[in-house]
Amino acid sequence: MALLVKEATRISVDELAGLLDTSRETVRRDLALLSEQGLLRKVHGGAVYTQTALESPLGDRRATARAEKIAIGKTAASLFRQGDSMLIDSGSTTAYFAQSLKEAGTFTIITNSTLVAAELWTAPAASEVYLLGGRYFGEGHEVLGPLVIEQIQRLHADHAVLTIGAVDRSGTFMDFNADEAFIARAMIASARQVTVLADSTKLGSHALFQVCRADHVHRLVTDKAPEAAVANALRTAGVEVIVASPG
Predict the structure, then answer these.
(1) d(CA 155, CA 152)
(2) Is the pTM value of this prediction over 0.70?
(3) Which domain range does residue 111 map to?
(4) How would you class 235 by CB atoms within 10 Å of its CB: exposed for 0-12, middle for 13-18, buried for 19 or more?
């Protein structure tokens, strides 16, 4: 069954029942088991394949769940106070966050994302923006590597604002890219508070590289309430879950 989901990317319960010549109840039960094993993700009426090792290019990700990410960015921007210092990593959601943050006031920003830096540089009341230096990766509009981590380790920011690739049912925060995961870990260690921005498609899913346990995160901003298992894990770890209002 997992192979059929992988080949189709997304498939309905009815389609699986027809292909396997079995009942929908059996399909739902098997999908629940495979979802718990991290081999796919159950969605309403079917399942989608989860890839733990690869992530689509940043341009594609910015177009995916765009309205949800914009809402997350707007809600997150309202959480910070004038003058706060923030470490912000690279990602589609933090790029939308930067668009809203530049309208919210003046801050001190340290980032490895050229998109985030460019957005905040054009703010009406210009924030102080520091772009971390290191090896540049144009596909992700980001700077990665040990030079970046060394610079982050010398900082003590009020906040780290991060995107991630996945949050599994145990509340573990993960990413698809090792270098990006290392950057996120360094930012977490160099900040007083950690805010993660993640659209709901990432909740209850898996990625290859662990970023941190839930107890390292102070708040999660998303567009829908997490499923019960994820919600329980986050609640136990003391993570505040903020659901962004659309529009």
Answers:
(1) 5
(2) yes
(3) 58-243
(4) middle
> Cα–Cα–Cα angle for 112, 113, 118, nearest 5°?
125
Q: How far is CA 165 from CA 106, 129, 181, 196, in A?
A: 29, 25, 9, 11
The confidence score (pLDDT) of residue 48 equals 67
Instruction: Based on the fold, state whether residues 24 and 139 are members of the same structural domain.
Output: no
**Euclidean distance between CA atoms 207 and 191, whole angstroms:** 24
Residues 150 and 215 in one domain: yes
Structure tokens at 114: 């050229």
**Averaged pLDDT, 201-217:** 94
- Check whether 9 has a pLDDT greater than 60: no
Q: Would you place residue 127 in the very low, low, confident or very high pLDDT band (cuts 50, 70, 90)?
A: confident
Q: Which CATH number is 14's domain given?
A: 1.10.10
3-state secondary structure 128-156: EEEECCCEEEHHHCEEECHHHHHHHHCCC
Same domain, 64 and 41: no
Which residue, of 49, 69, 85, is where some domain finishes?
49
Tell me the β-bridge partners of 131: 111
CA quadruple 143, 144, 147, 150: dihedral sign? positive
> Count of CB atoms within 10 A of residue 185's CB?
20
Per-residue pLDDT tens over the stretch 50-67: 655 444 444 444 445 788
Average pLDDT of every residue of the chain:
86
